[in-house]
Amino acid sequence: MSGTFPMRNSPQVLSVPGPNQRPRKKVALKPGFSPLDWARLSASGKDLRGVTELRLIMMDEVALHNKRTDCWMVIAGKVYNVTHYLEYHPGGKGELMRAAGKDGSALFNDTHPWVNAESILRACMIGFCSEPSRRQTKAVEKSDDSA
Fold first, then answer.
1. For residues 55 and 89, what is the distance between their CA atoms, to the nearest angstrom?
2. Is 89 in contact with 120 (CB distance < 8 Å)?
3. pLDDT tens-digit profile of 85-130?
4. Edge-to-edge strand list for the sheet holding 66-67
């Protein structure tokens, strides 16, 4: 052993994004909008869904909810109303808006495959996507801050 830390092939070594990946960028969140604050809010019992029961939702309906004031997305076949989560996303609102009104599964998995979306967004789940996606985002798309 050479005694250096981290070891050369260790997963703790900072990796360089692959050819189809954008470098990760985090933004400074406003006070009160940390991941811990989100965990508190999502466990508080406040209605973050905006619906009374889970249901099947078609992609055409998801596509209508593509604004910062009304933002839905599909991840792994589940539909989430992420409107309340926008301010808490470590990558910023613009990054999350890349999947607004779309199936963001590929983008989500390419950007951070180690993150469990279901546990973070459980309080925002509004239903299940009833059809295969035609509007799936790609990891190489440019961020759209205009929505």
1. 25
2. no
3. 999 999 899 999 999 999 999 999 998 889 999 999 999 999 999 9
4. 55-57, 125-129, 78-81, 70-75, 66-67
pTM of the model: 0.75
Q: How many CA atoms lie within 13 A of 110 on its CB side?
A: 19
* 43 within 8 A of 86, measured Cβ to Cβ: no
DSSP strand pairing (78-81 vs 70-75): antiparallel
Give the helix/strand (H/E) hosting 59.
helix 59-63
Summarize pLDDT for 1-10 with one digit per residue, the tens.
Answer: 556 666 666 5
Beta carbons of 76 and 113 less than 8 angstroms apart: no
Run of H or E residues at 117: helix 117-121
- Return d(Cα 120, Cα 122) in angstroms, integer: 6
Contact criterion met (CB below 8 Å) for 74 and 60: no
Q: How far apart are CA 20 and CA 87, in angstroms?
A: 27
